[in-house]
Amino acid sequence: MKFAELLDIVGDEPVFTSSLLRAGDVDPVDIASQLSRWVASGKLLSLRRGVYALAPPYRRREPHAFEVANVLVRPSYVSLESALAFHGLIPEAVFVTTSVTTARPSAYETSLGRFDFRHISSALLWGYAEERIAGDPVRTVLVARPEKALLDLVYLRPGADSAAFLRQLRLDRLESVDAVLLVEYAGRSGKPKLLRAARRVARMVDERSGEWREL
Questions:
Q1: What is the pTM (predicted TM-score) of this model?
Q2: Mean pLDDT confidence for 49-55
């Protein structure tokens, strides 16, 4: 395979897996050797075993960090602080893209950014949606809904169901949180910790809106 052929196969995708090149009658050993040569020559960047990015001169577009995260580990979706910041719920800038996955926990320091993957059980791998990438009307990435991102954070952080911790998050745009859906998600999880946190956040939503809802 010539590099021009690779560019035709990859198309507009700046990040891809080696499995993309193994369709049809090809020699996987030959493909692996070619990928190694292209990495050595600077045409490709190796992000992790089996995951590559086109070097800047050959990209048709720049990859979004969430897009990279979705490809680095599958199945996964962006969640926790990264998703909360994406939805405008926390004021702090987030410099590590954090996702959840049913695979083992892992972290990657790459030329395209830092990526952290936290493990959750397969029973909790839901509550995400395809979201548009900023400035791109076509590309989508898998990101936790605001309510699930918050619950994922509570699930993975010790003591995160306490009122003190939840207030320390300094959640913005609380009116965008669907309190009923939040409690519904928590109940679906079957985790008492998440239900406690969901009810506390629901009360915070009501306090912010000046209303009260019995949940």
A1: 0.92
A2: 97
